[in-house]
Specification:
- A hairpin with a 5-residue loop joins β5 and β6.
- This protein is 41% helix and 16% strand.
- The longest helix is centred in the last third of the chain and has 20 residues.
- With 320 residues, the chain is of the alpha/beta class.
- The strands form 2 sheets. It has a 5-stranded mixed sheet, sandwiched between helices. A 3-stranded antiparallel sheet has the order 1-2-3, with no helix packed on it.
- The protein is elongated and about 70 Å long.
- α1 crosses α3 and α1 crosses α8.
Length: 320
């Protein structure tokens, strides 16, 4: 016999099945008198595993309409594209906030590059800097210009994340990197300019950037649909989390860069991100009153209860 799940509101085991809707099983809690779906967050009816699956598909480059069709096919779940995007926006922001405190163990050689994408008819520049040894993406940023301030901001973000000054930084021959690196790291970092990273051949650093650009197709497919810089920035920051913490890398033995460092990570997949946003279940005073009411005996009933009969052994005295 299948065990009923605990109530997600009051954690009571006193639950029963309460029908299905759109392929999702509902339960009824007899203690707090609430209907719920197990493995869901408060005020959400979709199981956590389905939300996490949609997030993973999105950051692997699947468009919203394809995710919508996949949910309908696999789970019989009818979701609008806007509803799916609300999941993405909500949990992407949570993932970015929690990942900020993570301090990676990185090497002394970093690789920086920039690419341009046309979004809403305007060119937007995507700046990236990656650690050569760990493949950890230290910083990504979006800008509408390609100036010294943009290069300096990229280097400052990378320094804030790594907490160290690199010995070498490889870039292409864009001149703004010269001053951008100098303003943040000074003479402590050697700046090495190479041929454009998009060109075939070259040294190991060039080949690493070329492989990294191959993975950027996922990000390109995602951000093409946005028309504002702010939305593109949130998705870019969340894609960085996906790349560092969840995406498997062949060169690292099919392990994400953060998990390959051997230090504690805030999460290991999108499911842990979604579950981590759930508040700890708390029983309200109203729910406690309901439970106590159902377990208590009414005063009138108490009066009707008979006192227990105590049978005492009789003592028989023998005549002498």
């Amino acid at each position: 016999m299948e065990n009923s799940p605990l109530c997600k509101y009051c954690q009571s085991p006193n639950t029963i099945r309460f029908g299905t809707r759109k392929g999702i099983q509902y339960y009824w809690c007899k203690s707090c008198q609430r209907k719920f779906v197990p493995d869901t967050l408060p005020k959400m009816k979709t199981p956590v595993r389905i939300v996490a699956s949609a997030l993973g598909d999105y950051y692997r480059g699947m468009p919203l309409d394809s995710i919508q069709g996949q949910l309908q096919q696999d789970y019989g779940l009818s979701m609008s594209e806007y509803g799916i995007y609300k999941w993405v926006a909500r949990f992407s922001e949570d993932a970015v906030k929690k990942a900020r405190a993570f301090k990676p163990k990185v090497g002394d050689v970093w690789l920086a590059d920039e690419t341009v994408l046309k979004i809403a008819g305007r060119n937007m520049w995507f700046w990236d800097i990656i650690d050569r040894d760990s493949r950890f993406l230290l910083a990504s940023r979006v800008s509408m210009t390609r100036t010294i301030k943009d290069a300096q901001a990229l280097m400052q973000q990378a320094y804030d994340r790594a907490g160290k000054v690199p010995k070498q930084i490889y870039t292409d021959k864009l001149n703004v990197y010269l001053d951008g690196i100098e303003l943040v790291f000074g003479a402590a970092t050697k700046h090495i300019q190479t041929s454009p990273f998009g060109r075939k051949g070259g040294d190991e650093s060039t080949s690493i950037i070329e492989r990294f650009h191959g993975t950027l197709k996922e990000r390109t497919d995602i951000v093409h649909g946005f028309k504002t810089l702010s939305k593109s920035k949130l998705i870019t920051d969340a894609w960085l989390v996906h790349y560092n913490f969840f995406k498997e890398h062949t060169s690292l033995g099919n392990i994400p860069p953060a998990q390959n460092m051997g230090i504690p990570v805030p999460f290991k997949d999108w499911r842990e991100v979604v579950e981590g946003t759930a508040p700890k279940p708390q029983t309200t005073s109203l729910e406690r009153a309901r439970v106590e009411h159902r377990s208590a005996v009414h005063p009138l009933v108490k009066r009707r209860l008979k006192k227990p009969i105590i049978v005492r052994p009789s003592i028989v005295r023998m005549k002498q």
